[in-house]
Design goal:
Helices cover about 45% and strands about 10% of the residues. It has about 350 residues and is of the alpha+beta class. The strands form two sheets. Strands 1, 2, 3, 4, 5, 6 and 7 form a seven-stranded antiparallel β-sheet that branches. α6 packs antiparallel against α11.
Length: about 350
């Protein structure tokens, strides 16, 4: 800690109720954010100016920033085709001017349509406050987020490390998320452009009812199998596939062959917009909202009350006419995080 300002900034970032893993290490959280308005070289320079390190180019559209004080950052144009042809050209000894021109044209078009993405390393939750400065610097450099254009279906994604990977803990995180989904969607004010895509689809009612059953106590194999039966896709507001790949990749691959699924002991929360250009917004806002899910999942008494309330709401065919669940569930939230 360098000065009192850093201490003050850190004090604004609460930790989850269970901040340690079963190995008694501080839980970590990864962050991914999409935006336009900058060149990839300027994004890389901004990261290096804040955290040190050096750039290692994979292609013209993928650059890693390694040896920073926080770990390895990835910066890339979020467009698999242009990344692939650029990587192949860099790895080939048979480049020619026509191929380079074609790549340049496709890349120029792609940068008008798709965002750059910064993938931060997993950061200990008690050090996460240091990442807020990057958001501020990107904003100062005219980074543009979801609301800058009607076509900008850009998002911010959080990857919180699990305190443990037991079936009961994972089930309770799913339950907490399902119960708070309407509230989170209201808090995020998910942009229309993103709702038109399938990236953050909600869970279906049949799966929600299964998870909320009072007698639902699966072992880890049944929990994974049930999830994959109803959700054989990455396109959920809370994507569980990376976690289930970490636990039992062979079981997952029987149903899901998507090579974009990377094993890691984390959840993959995809709901928030990328409001990088809004001076009233920062990483701390979606983080504090996520802590409502995290803390509810680890508070069994409160979670049971919320689940009972939500089951009652779902079982009432006229509930939607008279009750707004997003507002009703707020009475069970932690006021200090709002």
């Amino acid at each position: 800690m360098n000065n009192s300002l850093d201490k003050y900034r850190k004090s604004l970032w609460p930790l989850p109720q269970h901040s340690q893993t079963t190995e008694d290490k501080m839980r970590r959280l990864g962050v991914e954010i999409e935006f336009t308005g900058m060149e990839i070289s300027d994004i890389v320079d901004t990261i290096i100016s804040l955290y040190g390190g050096k750039a290692e180019a994979v292609s013209d559209y993928e650059i890693n920033v390694v040896d920073t004080s926080l770990g390895k950052f990835g910066v890339e144009l979020d467009f698999s085709y242009i990344k692939r042809i650029s990587r192949e050209r860099h790895e080939s000894a048979d480049n020619n001017d026509l191929e380079e021109l074609a790549e340049a044209i496709v890349g120029a078009i792609a940068k008008q349509l798709v965002p750059f993405e910064v993938v931060a390393p997993p950061i200990a939750m008690d050090e996460l406050w240091q990442l807020e400065t990057l958001f501020q610097k990107l904003r100062d450099s005219d980074a543009q987020g979801t609301h800058a254009s009607a076509k900008n279906a850009f998002g911010l994604q959080l990857n919180p490390e699990m305190p443990d990977c037991s079936a009961d803990t994972i089930r309770d995180y799913l339950r907490a998320f399902l119960c708070l989904y309407d509230w989170l969607k209201m808090r995020c004010d998910v942009d229309f452009s993103r709702r038109l895509t399938s990236y953050v689809d909600p869970f279906g009612k049949d799966y929600v009812r299964l998870l909320l059953r009072a007698d639902y106590a699966p072992d880890i194999n049944q929990l994974i199998d049930d999830y994959l039966e109803y959700n054989p896709t990455r396109n959920r507001a809370l994507d569980m596939l990376p976690l289930f790949s970490h636990i039992d990749d062979e079981r997952l691959r029987r149903t899901v062959s998507d090579d974009r699924v990377k094993a890691r002991p984390t959840l993959h929360y995809r709901l928030p917009n990328s409001l990088i250009d809004d001076p009233q917004w920062g990483l701390i806002h979606p983080y504090r909202d996520w802590l409502q899910v995290d803390n509810l999942a680890m508070d069994k008494r409160r979670l049971d009350m919320v689940c009972r309330g939500y089951r009652k709401y779902l079982d009432n065919p006229t509930a939607n006419l008279f009750t707004n669940w997003a507002n009703s569930v707020s009475r069970w939230l932690i006021p200090e995080l709002l």
